[in-house]
Specification:
Elements lengths: L12 E4 L3 E5 L5 H5 L5 E4 L2 H17 L8
Antiparallel strand pairs: 1-2, 2-3
Length: 70
């Protein structure tokens, strides 16, 4: 698993197989999906998905490796 650190980023965008994007406020946890008042939007059209994939790749390229305390 690769981990990147990007300060002040709080976005929740989930990309599945470069074919589906879920964007919204929910964490992918039981509480986030069943108890909290959250919003989610599904995007499956190729243009929207590609925009999110490109944005993710751009953001990822600017992220830093985490500093792990031993």
């Amino acid at each position: 698993i690769k981990v990147g650190v990007f300060e002040n980023l709080h976005a929740k965008v989930y990309i599945f197989d470069d074919s589906l994007v879920i964007e919204g406020s929910a964490n992918l946890t039981r509480k986030g999906l069943t108890e909290n008042e959250e919003t989610l939007e599904l995007k499956a059209d190729l243009r929207s998905v590609n925009e999110y994939v490109n944005k993710f790749n751009e953001t990822w390229s600017k992220s830093k490796s985490p500093i792990l305390n031993e």
